[in-house]
Each structure stands twice: as structure tokens, then as C-alpha cells.
Amino acid sequence: MSSLKREEIICLFDVDGTLTMPRQKILPSTEEFILTQLKPRATIGLVGGSDLRKIAEQMGGEDVITKFDYVFAENGLVAYKNAQLIGKMNIQKHIGEENLQKFINYALGYMSKLTLPVKRGTFIEFRDGLVNVCPVGRSCSQSERDQFAAYDKEHNIRENFVQDLKQQFPDLGLVFTIGGQISIDVFPKGWDKTFALRFVGSDGFKEIHFFGDKTAPGGNDHEIYEDSRTIGHTVTSPQDTIAQLKALFHL
């Protein structure tokens, strides 16, 4: 590891599967390592697909925006630096209500024809910067999440859904990415996690490291992982993230 100062190097982290298990709270040991061992050595930031409320739930409370130097919710479309809101985008204004309703109506129709192990509620979640589409329903329990994730792995439910959406909406300028265990994030082209780099890119960092688990094409970490401005690291779990950080920073 080069002997860069803290203000010259930043580590950006996905949340689900990277610092926490999917939709679970960060383990005290993981948080302690990030805040007490890594933070003195590098600037730290989160880049999550979820809204700030969900990120705060997983990261131990609303003071997450003070613990981390940067917090980018909704792929960076809601951005905080040193606990101050520095940017916010709105998908409804961007693509228009008529187009938004066409998309939502179609997605609900598609999901109504799926037969899954279980179905619960909240199939569409509207956020500031993206629409989250969830075939199983976001109100499912953790065991039902795990059940859907296993079923999806075998039957490619989300992958097939994404291919269909691409065919149905080629002209809205939307991107469809598989995120977490159960859902698909939908947002305007360019509003993926690379959006967060607009804020850190001008802050003088010599190295921008990104850690994520969904880095393959179609995953919601892929674009920022392969971006020429970042040094990408694929991880398989929070434990793997810590192991890679220890190796990188000789901790």
C-alpha cells in the first residue's frame, strides 16, 4: 500500500453483502474495524442502493452520516458529506409522471403473472432517485427473502424480468440492475453508483477504492467497480471485505 495521507485516499463501500449481510445490521466487530482501524488511515464512504432510512437501520442509526465521511444513498442520488446534504435528484421530475406510470403499470402486470414460493406486499417502492421493483414483495420476512433468493438463483426470475423490461422500455433512457437478494433497481442512465463519483472526484483523492459484491455485469455495483476512476474490489461477505482491507492497508 502506498503511503498516501488519509485525505488522499478514499474507500467507498456497498452496504448489503459488503459491510452487512443482506438487509441485516452491521456486526459490532465490522463497525469497530471500519471506524477505529480503517478510518484513521483513509476517508470512508458508503454507496448504497437503498434510501437513507434503510441504510441507517443497517448501519446502526441515523448518526451513520457522522460516522462516515460520505454517505451516498440511492446510488449517490441523495448525497451527504460530513453530515451535510450536498445533492439530491428526483426521478419523477426527470422522466415525467406519464412515463413513470406506464413503467409502474407494466411492471406490476408482469409481476402479477409470476408464480413464486411466496408473495407478500410492496412490489414497487418509489424513492427519490430510483424505483425499486420487487417480485416477492419487500414486506417478506428474512427467511422468505432467503427462499426467494435461492429460487431466483435457480430460475433467473429477476434476470428474465430485466431482459423483458429492456425490450419494453428501450426509449426511456432507463437502466435496470439486480440489487440485493430480492429486487431490481430502475433509474435513468448515468444514475448508477458512478453518480457518487461526481462528489468525490473533485475532492482531490489520488486513489478511490470501491468494495462491492454485485460487481458482475447486471449487478448494481458493476458500473462503479469497472469505472476508470476507481480501483475495484469484489468481495463475498463482510468478513472478506475486512480481510481485503487488512491486506491492502497492512492492518
From TrEMBL:
One of its GO terms (cellular component) is cytosol. Pathway: Nucleotide-sugar biosynthesis; GDP-alpha-D-mannose biosynthesis; alpha-D-mannose 1-phosphate from D-fructose 6-phosphate: step 2/2. It comes from Megafenestra aurita. It comes from the Eukaryota. Mg(2+) 1 binds at D14, D16, D213, Y225, D227. Pfam families: PMM (PF03332). Belongs to the eukaryotic PMM family. This is Phosphomannomutase. It catalyses: alpha-D-mannose 1-phosphate = D-mannose 6-phosphate. It is found in: Cytoplasm. Alpha-D-mannose 1-phosphate binds at R23, R127, R138, R145, S183, D185. Involved in the synthesis of the GDP-mannose and dolichol-phosphate-mannose required for a number of critical mannosyl transfer reactions. Its cofactor is Mg(2+). Homodimer. NCBIfam families: HAD-SF-IIB (TIGR01484). One of its GO terms (biological process) is mannose metabolic process. Its main location: cytoplasm. Its EC number is 5.4.2.8. Keywords: Cytoplasm, Isomerase, Magnesium, Metal-binding. SUPFAM superfamilies: HAD-like (SSF56784). GO terms for molecular function: metal ion binding; phosphomannomutase activity.
